[in-house]
Design the sequence.
């Protein structure tokens, strides 16, 4: 099966019931950002999503359980800062 979308991470802003999902749209060769209603960590994919591509919503339905459990939460990412010391490991 061809992968058309890939979710990278999700985060909440000031409105705690809204969840932003950031990912890649391989069909358009671009990133996507969708805002979803998600009260109590339960995204509602039928609430105000009619303007999003149907294939994207279907993909998010497949990932819903992982999203609701927090697997894609940006807080799960391990951030590393670039260091000049890494240049020592790069062959020139």
Sequence:
């Amino acid at each position: 099966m061809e992968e058309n979308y890939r979710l990278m991470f999700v985060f909440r802003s000031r409105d705690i019931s809204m969840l932003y999902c950031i990912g890649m749209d391989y069909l358009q060769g671009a990133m996507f950002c969708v805002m979803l209603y998600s009260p109590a960590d339960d995204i509602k994919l039928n609430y105000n999503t009619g303007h999003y591509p149907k294939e994207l919503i279907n993909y998010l339905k497949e990932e819903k359980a992982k999203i609701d459990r927090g697997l894609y939460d940006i807080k799960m990412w391990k951030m590393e800062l670039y260091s000049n010391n890494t240049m020592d490991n790069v062959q020139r």
Q: What stands out?
A: Helices lie at 54-69. Strands lie at 5-12, 18-25, 30-37. The longest strand covers residues 5-12. Residues 54-69 form the longest helix (16 residues).
